[in-house]
Specification:
257 residues; mainly alpha; globular
């Protein structure tokens, strides 16, 4: 089932509000969870990693072809044209890796990183949330179920990265600054309303950057030993979401029940 442009706008707003609420109420949610924060964070990391590997990365090839076709109409074709969105995904990965390195270096010998690093982190993660919402607006018109699966994966991923941000900035990440992160998701919706996203190479490029950023943040959440992450819950999230995507893919085939 696909949604009309108007329905997609309102559905995107509902998800943007939900993603914003995750940031605003994450500390309270963590205190009241029947599971440990590490379990939920790892489960969300498994879901996000599965989304990238089974959904986003296969579509990078399609995005490469779309961008290459546009470039081929305007400039002489080059081998790099077919790698355009893959290079953007790599850029998203490197951008957040560099941010993590700067954060750790500025934290040496102090309770938390400097205010400048905090503001840069805040701005980039707010933009990261906005990019999620903006690209979501195109997914409803392609398929409501795919859009809903994306929203679930991103909600769990935001909860996981919020936990990491809270660890980095236990003092500065107060209620008022959380509104900046929450506002990022709503800003993405406002931009989607003002500038209608379409299935163009631009959307493919933005989605590629988002995929690279998600992948790096999953690695940050799960790989460092000091995170005390749960491998079991990571695998549980990975398997559960993989089975869900496989079911949707099979059910969506012509002639499927």
């Amino acid at each position: 089932m696909t949604l009309s442009r108007t329905s997609a706008v309102w559905a995107t707003l509902a998800v943007a509000l939900a993603l914003s609420a995750v940031h605003l109420f994450a500390p309270r949610i963590r205190r009241r969870l029947p599971l440990t924060s590490q379990a939920v964070t790892s489960f969300g990391g498994g879901v996000a990693a599965t989304y990238v590997f089974l959904y986003l990365l296969p579509r990078l090839a399609e995005g490469n072809q779309a961008v290459a076709a546009v470039l081929g109409d305007k400039v002489r074709s080059t081998p790099l044209a077919g790698l355009a969105t893959s290079l953007v995904a790599l850029l998203g990965f490197v951008t957040f890796y560099a941010l993590e390195r700067v954060t750790h270096r500025s934290q040496r010998g102090t309770a938390e990183p400097t205010r400048a690093v905090f503001l840069v982190q805040l701005a980039l993660f707010a933009a990261y949330r906005g990019l999620m919402t903006y690209t979501l607006a195109t997914k409803w018109q392609a398929g409501a179920l795919a859009a809903l699966l994306f929203a679930i994966a991103m909600g769990l991923h935001i909860f996981a990265t919020d936990h990491v941000l809270a660890e980095h900035f236990p003092v500065r990440l107060t209620g008022r600054w959380r509104f900046v992160l929450a506002g990022g998701a709503l800003t993405g919706w406002v931009v989607a309303v003002a500038v209608e996203p379409t299935g163009t190479p631009l959307i493919n490029t933005l989605t590629a950057f988002l995929g690279g950023a998600i992948l790096l943040n999953v690695f940050i959440d799960e790989l460092p030993p000091e995170r005390h992450s749960s491998f079991g819950w990571f695998v549980a999230g990975l398997v559960a979401y993989a089975l869900l995507l496989i079911f949707v893919a099979v059910a969506g085939k012509p002639g499927a029940a």
